[in-house]
Amino acid sequence: MKHTRMRNCTNEECLQVENTLARVAPECEWGDFRAWALKVMACWSTSEKTAFDIDAHPNAARLKISPHIAAARIPMSLPVASVRLPYRGVTQRLAHPPNMAIYFCTKLLGSLELMDWNYEVGFHTEDDFFGVVELLIWMSNATDFVPNPRIMRNYVRVADDLELPLHMRRLNRAIFGVSSLQSNFCRRRLWNLVLACRSGIASIPSIMSILNTMPATDTRVHAQCTPETCQFDEENSTTVRQLHQCGLSESDHRIKCDPSKLNHSTLPHNAWTMKRELTGGKFMAISHIWLDGTGSSINTEAGTVNECLFEFFTSVAQREGCEGIWWDAICMPSDRKKWAEEISRMHQNYSNAEFTLVHDLQLANFEWRDDGSPCLALALSAWFTRGWTALELRASKKVKVLFKAPAHPHGQTVPADGFIFQYNGHHEYRYVLKDLDDDILASGKSIFTSPAHQEVSLVIQTVRGRAQGDLTKLNQLMFAMKNRHTSWGRDRMIITSLMADPRGLESGLTAPEITKKLLVDSGPWSWCPPVLLDLAEDEEGYDSFLTITPDGELTGTWATKTLTKEELAKLSPVGSHPSTVIRIKRYLAAPKEVLILDKSYEARTGWTVDLYWGG
């Protein structure tokens, strides 16, 4: 690193921060560059911020320059110790900010073909520069300077995310690690999470670095799961025996909350107290998966649950200052009409609750750690993959997740924020309740947070509807629900509709009727599949969109082209049903009457057409 003339910092605080950052910063095969990046960010983060050069920039205060712009003590390369560069339309003189380090290296990466990288640092491959880019993206968390990660990765001259493993050895190793996961981790869930991340498959190394340190707490064995299927996705959870929170699987202590009382209830919500009385006071809503045995079972009478489980949930509610609980296993009316009405507005119970308790055995057995791993555990849990829980997450104002209490030093049985549950002197369970926003998710951009923690947090926030605006946008609805699973296929469309329109849903609608309701009120719509979630995946960033009219017609302006003979020969129907194949082949038989609509043609041809499609 002598060519950078970087001063070696011996400040104890800086060294401690450097050690902390080394645990979260991305790996990089170019060790010297990583060491340089860690020192830059460690010294910057411990420095006192200096005022921006107001004399040189009288408009700085008005422009509200980012507080990350200036720092008093940064180890920097002397050739770039002071530089002028444009920032928000104004040329500014920057003195030792980390922005300069990132700016310099970004320009360096953009000039790879013009530079000789053999100069006393050894030959470096594209694999090395992938690590450099990942480090720069991590450094950018301290600034507002570096662009989107996908744009940054263009500097390693890889055209497509799916080509990355062909060039990057570290990605290849990480993907191999996915294929050889322990059987208690589901490969389908992991791949769904990776593809939902902002960085796509480039996020795999960072995710795997955390996953490899996590204990396997899922009691279900996923040895037969593949990247495309999970053997538990379609399992009928109503046949699962109910969970015993007392630790005695053969215990037969049950209680009943009479569902007939709910048929005539006038309360805004039907929550039960520990004394099995309905209450209109503060209540806790429970979000869980029936596959764990926390739901109703066809083997038990409606409203009947294990006493130990009921006592556990009500004790958590009381501990958090609530009078009652809303738990679907005991809070659904017995009358079929009332039951259907309750289903259509069930998510409103989560909106009205003081908070929602997330209960998943995989998480309840996961020992809490303050290192971002609980966030990854949540995203890979069965709870996060289910359809109804996605709606419950979306609807909830405040969410708390149950984790196993960590072993605590100094002789304490549980940490200060933990608690012990014991039913009738039987087995003790030690837990902690952690707030989703305050404790689990990464709080914005930070160099002290691992890239995986930030990526996964953004995925969870997007499903929650707090990362990319309102989920009534079609592509965001599909993002939230595309890979969700329910015991009954029709439920996925009901959930999607309720996410789009929280006011409720008419009972008895078919899947095509629900899709139509989501898009339009009436009219032809042969351009759309019967199930909304079967629409092709779309990308963000289009300048224009097609509009669905109240009559179900598709209108708008799109790029278009006619088919050549060569292109026609390459086309084949995506669907396999004879009716679909015949319909497509009938149109392709007259290619001069067919127009292909595709945004990608715009740059090549410049042709556009006013589109009107009424079926």
Automatic annotation (TrEMBL):
<protein>
    <recommendedName>
        <fullName>Heterokaryon incompatibility domain-containing protein</fullName>
    </recommendedName>
</protein>
<dbReference type="Pfam" id="PF06985">
    <property type="entry name" value="HET"/>
</dbReference>
<feature type="domain" description="Heterokaryon incompatibility">
    <location>
        <begin position="283"/>
        <end position="358"/>
    </location>
</feature>
<dbReference type="InterPro" id="IPR010730">
    <property type="entry name" value="HET"/>
</dbReference>
